[in-house]
Amino acid sequence: MKLTLSVKLTDGETYKVVTNLFVIIAWERKFKRRSSDLANGIGMEDLAFMAYEASRTQDHPVPISFDEFIKQLEDLEVVETESAVPTQEASGSN
Questions:
Q1: Which residues, at least 6 apart from 49, have a Cβ–Cβ distance to it below 8 Å?
Q2: Digits of tens for pLDDT over the chain (94 positions)?
Q3: Is the N or the C terminus of the chain less surrounded, counting Cβ atoms within 10 Å?
Q4: How far is CA 88 from CA 40, 85, 94, in A?
Q5: Does pTM surpass 0.85?
């Protein structure tokens, strides 16, 4: 699953990051949950952690600690989701 997250910081900076397999696995390790659990709902701490890890891997300057990153967040939202296994349209052969 890929999520595109819009991150707005208290200093007014806004940027988007996209999660990847590394970010999802880091989230699974930290929160001891499976990615399939995301279908049942996702909390703000989950989104913040994914934004933090994605920001770190995509060269956005972030504080050394996750808690310091949270303190700098003004707003955080999912702007797009993409399944890890995209569905394919059925071919119309008659």
A1: 26, 27, 30, 31, 66
A2: 789 999 999 999 999 999 999 999 999 999 988 887 777 888 999 999 999 999 999 989 898 899 999 999 999 999 987 765 444 555 555 5
A3: C
A4: 24, 9, 18
A5: no
